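Protein: GNAT family N-acetyltransferase
Species: Wansuia hejianensis
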Amino acid sequence: MNYIIREIKKSEYPLLNDFLYETIFQKDGNNLVSKDMIKHPALQQYIREFGTQKDDFCLCAEVKGTVIGAVWTRCIEGFGTVDKSAPELAISIYQDYRGQGIGTDLMKHMLKLLKNKGYQKTSLSVQKENYAVRMYLNLGYEVVDEKEEEYILQYLFA
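Structure follows.
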């Protein structure tokens, strides 16, 4: 599959609503949660007024002029926060494009960007049953906390 990875354009920020919904791990594909779920304040903090904070970074994957995935960070007190100075990362790829290495490529680009910006670490939260756990661990993330259904992962820059 031919795709490019680039910084998201300000005019594309509204796409983060869709990608935020796509980040929600849903075990039962036949019984999806309502898209209104992303209106909850705990989730909105990941995208509300994106681009206004100094730690807001977003890269996207584009196929034939269409954005099909995004990875973004901001310093918040979210589900995967380990340190207020460490950006928390969120990533999402549309279903039809998953399992093709695009997510791994997006992650590698974001980790390089954060390292070049001088960050010491980044973190995220992932459901234990999410197949992406393996990708994160292969990229060098480590489990720093474990809850009933999720892991908190941290990546330390060398």
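Remarks: The first helix runs from residue 15 to 23.
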